[in-house]
User: What shape does this take?
Amino acid sequence: MKTETLLILPSKERSANLETGSLQFIGNATVLIRFGGVTILTDPTFIHRHERVSIGYGLHSTRLTDPAMEIGELPPLDLVVLSHFHGDHFDQVAERELDKSLPIVTTREAATALQRRGFRQSKPLDTWASVAVEKGEARLRITALPGRHGPPFADLLLPDVMGSLLEFHSPQAQPFRLYITGDTLLFDDLKEIPRRYPAIDLALLHLGGTRVLGILVTMDAEQGVGMMKLVRPLRAIPIHYNDYDVFKSPLTDFQQAIDAAGFQDRLHYLRHGETYTFRLSRQAAA
Assistant: This one.
């Protein structure tokens, strides 16, 4: 059953730009999304090169890159969308420096862990449940989509993970749909996404081919191409690659696989700190 809750954010703006939005790639799966005066941060990780995060069961991963900015350099945030509670998606810097009053939309498991750490506005979403966000004139909906962090025999040892669909609304335009895959592998439940949402404008693909004890737990190049074939986004941006030493499938592997599949015109690549701007399509006149 699909359920929806309402989140109303305080606003001081009298008017907002509801025609365009932007995504700035901070690094790993951390992206700064802006639309209509709403500022969203995804999967916040801000440790630096050579520093480590815990990935559970006494295992650690070392960062190979630096984030494009520090938490103190971010603009004022309205909310966080967190795919799951792993150290390379919510690290010790985020826990220490993020405002504890920020709403965090995430899995039920992650919300419980965050609330224990003082993030009292953590908002759990079950799969297919949504939160409608309002700030001034801006309207958007965040829906939790299926995700599975590993193969069936290993999934019970891994945290629950969700994909996210962000739908940005404007009275004069069609909704813009942004799909963030989260740290999922391809599995049958994902087939329901294109049935419910056949028109995805942009996808952020969590890649990297992460392997823990030899087990694949995030999409590699081949699975990334499979995701493109499944959800058929108009455009896609790869993220979550080359940033940690547990990532075994480099971006170059994905680029080669995308070219071989003939999807190169749909891909847009961002370096750390670079920004992608999107525009809502105007509705056809009646």
Summary: The chain has a mean pLDDT of 95. The chain has six helices and 18 strands. The first helix runs from residue 92 to 97. Helices lie at 92-97, 108-116, 152-155, 192-196, 221-231, 251-261.
